[in-house]
């Protein structure tokens, strides 16, 4: 694969105490995304409520919700890989190439 100006990798574990299916994982992903949106709206004062949190605390809460979203998304990829035979590495490589083609990632010469 090409070299990028910056490439960070985040790895999240496979949850081994669950038996997720595609549909249940998708529903959980939507639930967690809703919680993230709610946290952003509420803690940023977008819902009209007065917020008594410091900016750092707001960002900390948002980051926790975002990681919940990421964990469920990773779990859904494991479901696709294990139950449907999708090659996740291949899909990630295709995704990165799409990002390069759209100009979202600059390739080092």
From TrEMBL:
<dbReference type="InterPro" id="IPR004518">
    <property type="entry name" value="MazG-like_dom"/>
</dbReference>
<protein>
    <recommendedName>
        <fullName>NTP pyrophosphohydrolase MazG-like domain-containing protein</fullName>
    </recommendedName>
</protein>
<dbReference type="InterPro" id="IPR044548">
    <property type="entry name" value="AF0060_NTP-PPase_MazG-like"/>
</dbReference>
<feature type="domain" description="NTP pyrophosphohydrolase MazG-like">
    <location>
        <begin position="23"/>
        <end position="101"/>
    </location>
</feature>
<dbReference type="Pfam" id="PF03819">
    <property type="entry name" value="MazG"/>
</dbReference>
């Amino acid at each position: 694969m090409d070299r990028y100006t910056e490439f960070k990798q985040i790895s999240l574990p496979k949850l081994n105490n669950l038996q997720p299916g595609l549909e249940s994982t998708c529903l959980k992903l939507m639930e967690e995304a809703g919680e993230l949106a709610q946290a952003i709206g509420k803690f940023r004062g977008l819902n009209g409520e007065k917020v008594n949190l410091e900016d750092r605390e707001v960002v900390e809460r948002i980051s926790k919700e975002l990681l919940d979203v990421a964990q469920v998304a990773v779990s859904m990829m494991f479901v696709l890989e294990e139950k449907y035979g999708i090659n996740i590495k291949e899909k990630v490589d295709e995704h990165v190439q799409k990002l390069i083609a759209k100009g979202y990632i600059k390739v080092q010469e």
